[in-house]
Amino acid sequence: MDPQETTILVGWGLVLIDLVIRITALIIIPRDRKPTAAMAWLLAIFFIPFVGIFFFLLLGSPKLPRARREKQREINRMISEAATDTDLVSDRNSWPPWFASVVELNRHLGAVPIAGGNNATLIGDYNASIEAMAADIHTATEFVHVEFYIVSFDNTTKHFFAAMEAAVKRGVRVRVLLDHIASIRTVGHKETFAELDRIGAKWSFMLPVQPFTGKYQRPDLRNHRKIVVVDGRVAYMGSQNLIDRSYRAEKNVRRGLAWQELVTRVTGPAVSGINAIFLSDWYSETDEILNERVPADEVRRDRSTDALDCQVVPSGPGFEGENNLRLFLALLYSAQERIIITSPYFVPDEAMMYAITSGRQRGLDVQLFVSEIGDQASVYHAQRSYYGALLQAGVRIWLYPAPYILHAKHFSIDEDVAVIGSSNMDIRSFVLNYEVSLMVRGRTFVDRMREVEAGYREVSRELTLADWNKEPRSKTALDGLARLTSALQ
């Protein structure tokens, strides 16, 4: 066979392979996948077939391995059985008419029941929240459970590490979970791991990507939760990681970026639900079943009229459904007066966009707080691509000023229901990340959240439709392209 014939044969072979890839993609990719995600993957494969198929094989499955999903179902059964007779809510008659159905939805999704008799405060000062956690760890007598997406030993967190070290010396059992990929990408991670070893904490990676040790799943599935539990009597959760406010990244320091967070400190029966999330994650990663919880009859309950009803809602790729998205949608459609959302990475799917814009069309006051600038270019531009439709619907958008990244994640509806946690309102948080949310019913808590929102509003600039219409087409075109790529999941 002469070289020309060989070239022709190879060419036809490549054409045939390309055709097989495209036909196979049309059959496989749309199956059990959202149309937007399927279309994004198909476009990638059709335009760059060999590169596209490589990334689809690497990242195309949003689910954990079957054994891991089965372990999550086992955990849910354990939580359900332990809470069968649990009903710590004293006055269901004070609930809005629709609230009981949302509680039932959450119980079905995440297995954790609602509990009354809680107190919860909000901490918006970055360093103060870490100091408050450290102060509570100094009072620990039994156990300390720490779980963060990113853990870093630095000047901001050294008091937290010192508190853990002192607890270990007192004989307190200190356990730490940290996301594998997020933590090893952080500046100074080797020093952090060495410090955890030195102080005697028992620690483990979450969702490790270590194929040579048999630990592997889609590499961008991450555990994004942020939790601290002390003795089962006090807990913290919210948006903040355990790291310096600049995240110690050179590009952030160069731009002068600083993260603005919101954390809640919780006492009462709801702490058991937050602790259950840590216990389940510890079991998932180590196969060790811990029995470190406070018996229900020993939990201190607030019996005042200001006591809060709280329900913990876990979500992530180990669950069958998108727990956080279902919770958010249920609340958005239940709102009767107002919806106020704070999200650093706001890249909603169609269902959430309909829920938010329908709220405005129903006559509700709907507001969105986001950062004026972004720390991740692709997400920032994808987020901007939704501003036009939101503004046209009448949603008010507030831009939190540079150099701050408004990283807080919370929203409130009407006057007595709010959600705070680790979940962004984006496709990654709905599908790919392990997250945890706390739904709170209580006027006093929402009043405090309103004060936080008022503080945001005072320093923010409102983006109007007139302002948006002045945006250059070159920039909005980039926004649209980023929205398309955000659907890859």
Provide a descriptive summary of the structure in words.
This protein is 46% helix and 19% strand. It is an alpha/beta fold. The mean pLDDT is 88. The longest helix is centred in the first third of the chain and has 26 residues, at 3-28. Helix 13 (350-361) links the parallel strand 11 and strand 12. The two termini are 45 Å apart. It has 19 helices and 18 strands.
Shape: globular
Uncertain runs are none
Percentage of residues in strands? 15-25%
- Number of strand elements: 18
Helix content: 40-55%
Key terms for this structure?
489 residues, 16-stranded mixed sheet, alpha/beta, 19 helices, two-stranded parallel ribbon
Summarize the structure.
The protein is an alpha/beta fold and 489 residues long.
Summarize the helices and strands and which ones pair or pack.
Blueprint: H1 3-28, H2 35-47, H3 49-59, H4 66-82, H5 99-110, E1 115-123, H6 126-137, E2 143-148, H7 158-169, E3 173-179, H8 180-184, H9 189-199, E4 202-206, E5 222-223, E6 227-230, E7 234-238, H10 250-255, E8 258-260, E9 263-267, H11 270-286, E10 308-315, H12 323-334, E11 338-342, H13 350-361, E12 365-371, H14 377-384, H15 387-393, E13 396-400, E14 404-406, E15 410-413, E16 417-421, H16 427-432, E17 433-441, H17 443-459, E18 461-463, H18 465-469, H19 473-486
Parallel strand pairs: 2-3, 3-4, 5-17, 8-14, 11-12, 12-13
Antiparallel strand pairs: 1-9, 1-10, 2-6, 6-7, 7-9, 10-17, 11-15, 13-18, 15-16, 16-17
Helix pairs in contact: 2-3, 5-12, 6-7, 12-13, 14-19
